[in-house]
Amino acid sequence: ESTDANTRQETPPGEEPAFADVDENPRITTPDSEDGPAATTEQPALTAATSQRSGFREGPRTSGRWAAPVEEPEEGSVSGSDGEASNHEAEDLSDADEPHDSYGKLAYLTKCDDMGLNPVSQVLKYLEQEDMQLTHYGMGPRGVAALAAGLQVNSTISTLRMADNHLGAEGCSLLLLSLKNKNSVTEIDLSDNSMGKGIAALPPLLAPKFSVVTTLHLRGNKLGDREAKILCDALSQNTTVTYLDVSVNQFSEKGGHFIGGLLETTAIVKELNMAWNNLRAKGCGHISQALKANSALEVLNIGWNGLGDDGMIALGEALAINTGLVELMLSSNSISGKGFVVLAKGIAANVSLASVELDHNNIGGSDGPGIREAVDGNKGLVAMGLSNCNVADELRTYVDAVLFQRRKQQGSSQ
Questions:
Q1: Contact (Cβ atoms closer than 8 angstroms) between residue 151 and residue 105
Q2: Helical ranges in 160-237 per DSSP H
Q3: Res 103: pLDDT
Q4: For the chain, first and last CA: distance in Å?
Q5: Which of 49, 101, 103, 267 is the least crowded, having the fewest Cβ atoms under 10 Å away?
């Protein structure tokens, strides 16, 4: 009781009690009493309000019951415990808040929202990968418009396969234009999309010193002779495209003229697929003329073009001179014995040709005029397709046995 009386201080009404500076280990000493010498007692724990006024803050305790005093920051400094940041840190945080859309997913989603489209989960998946496989999705021009927004930002995709998506000229154009400022896509497949006039957007993507495209699939796109010229003009300056598929289109003799001119003046394309067009004999003549000078082309497919015997005569003469062609496909071209005799001489004289496909041609004859001569003359020939060619079984057996033995020898030597 005496201790409480001595330590209690009167506070005037309306004023808060004053607090003295608090020592790190505060103690209260009472005067000597009759019962014994002076005693020392601990002061009760500080309240939150008292702690705030006295400079103490709640935190980890260092000894006994007391929280260690928190050092106040120097003037001009910033306390990290208060969640504040310096101007430099604030700028960094501001930058971190900005969305990073290297895949183009945000751009795609935003465009879908603007157009009222439901996003395609597979698009979001493939935007993060190098190989985008979106064939047969039926996206149409509107769907590909949203995708194009993502592709303009994306820097990951190197292979873009968009065959059979009902894009039409408009959709193909949008897709190609979205890639014109990107130099990461090396393979493009827009087959079976009825591209037509949309091919006008392709040349910027094939521009020299920019293009990295090496493989171009344009199969089944209703491309005519006018589109053939646009394509060939662009490729005449290109130095990267080595594989070109323009099969199942509408190239006629004039289209063959443009393709022939391309092959005659450049040596970049190594594989060319022109099957299922309308080249006819004159178109074949233009390509044959180019083969006399071109030694870069290794694989040529001109099957199903109605080339006829006249076309085979021109091609046979070219093969006797050509030194680069390795595979030649001539299926279903209305070739008879007359045309094949000249073609066979060219095959026999060629120094590079290893495979010839002649299926579905009525070569005929009991001994298949020229077939044996072609096989025996070209020692590098290892494959010849003769299905449905009206050739005697004995001759086919002979050809198969000879070519099989050659393949076996090549396999053992490798």
A1: no
A2: 168-178, 225-235
A3: 93
A4: 109
A5: 49
Greatest Cα-to-Cα distance within the chain, rounded to the nearest angstrom: 145
Listed in sequence order, the DSSP H helices in 116-245 are 121-126, 140-151, 168-178, 225-235
- In contact, 154 and 178? CB cutoff 8 Å: no
pLDDT one-digit tens code per residue, 213-222: 999 999 999 9
Q: Check pLDDT > 60 for residue 256.
A: yes
Report pTM. 0.76
What is the token pair recorded at 123?
Answer: 């698009």
The phi-psi region of residue 206 (left if phi > 0; otherwise alpha if psi is between -120 and 50; otherwise beta) is alpha
Q: Which of 300, 380, 307 is nearest to 347 (CA)?
A: 380
Q: Which of 172, 186, 182 is nearest to 143 (CA)?
A: 172
Q: What number of residues does the chain have?
A: 414
Cα angle at 286 between 223 and 301, to 5 degrees?
60
User: Quick one: what percent of the chain has pLDDT higher than 70?
Assistant: 74
Token couple for 90: 């604030």
Amino acid code (one letter) for 348 = A
Provide φ and ψ at 84, rounded to 5°: -90, 165
Alpha-carbon distance of 298 to 350, in angstroms, equals 13
Cα 142 from Cα 213, distance rounded (Å): 25
- Give the DSSP H/E element, type plus range, for residue 132: strand 131-133
Residue in the block written with tokens 């769907």? 143
Q: Distance between CA atoms of 212 and 180, rounded to whole angstroms?
A: 11
C-alpha to C-alpha distances, 318 to 176, 199, 287, 380, nearest whole angstrom: 36, 31, 9, 18
Residue 7 in contact with residue 28, Cβ under 8 Å?
Answer: yes
Provide the percentage of residues in the chain whose pLDDT is more than 90: 68
pLDDT, tens only, 92-150: 433 444 457 889 999 999 999 999 999 999 999 999 999 999 999 999 999 999 999 99
- Which distant-in-sequence residues (6+ apart) come within 8 Å of 305 by Cβ? 274, 275, 276, 277, 278, 279, 280, 283, 284, 311, 333
